[in-house]
Specification:
By secondary structure, this protein is mostly helical. It folds into two domains: about 60 residues; about 35 residues, no CATH class. Helices cover about 70% and strands about 0% of the residues. The N terminus is likely disordered.
Length: about 130
């Protein structure tokens, strides 16, 4: 009987945590969607054709930075939406896509859309 009680407490805790993580994911999705809606990649049509090399270099850098930020935002939004889909289906959320082990809850609190456990993320970041 005690095991069932502990299991029930654990289930209630996970349900509360899932609700908190879902809220964080939904808030992040809203934030990223607004960013993308307002993000306009500025076109610099004559990069490299100006009178000053430094001005051209600055424009080229600014344009590359804007494109990179736009892509990163789109990729993060995709990860957030995938995490929400996993929560909705009840399968796969909080499980590392590389090794299949649970992702530490502290990591999920920090990055609710995390796809990998910390160990696998480190390996991926280092190129392994």
């Amino acid at each position: 009987m005690c095991i069932m009680f502990e299991s029930s407490i654990e289930q209630v805790t996970m349900t509360k945590n899932d609700a908190r993580l879902r809220k964080k994911l939904e808030d992040e999705r809203e934030h990223l969607t607004k960013l993308l809606a307002h993000h306009i990649v500025k076109s610099h049509p004559n990069v490299g054709l100006g009178n000053h090399m430094a001005d051209d270099a600055s424009r080229a850098f600014d344009q590359a930075r804007e494109v990179t930020l736009f892509r990163q935002t789109k990729n993060t939004l995709r990860d957030v939406e995938n995490a929400l889909a996993k929560l909705d289906s009840g399968e796969g959320y909080g499980v590392c896509e590389r090794c299949g082990q649970p992702i530490d809850f502290a990591r999920l609190k920090a990055i609710p859309w995390a796809r990998y456990c910390l160990s696998c993320q480190r390996k991926l970041d280092s190129g392994h």
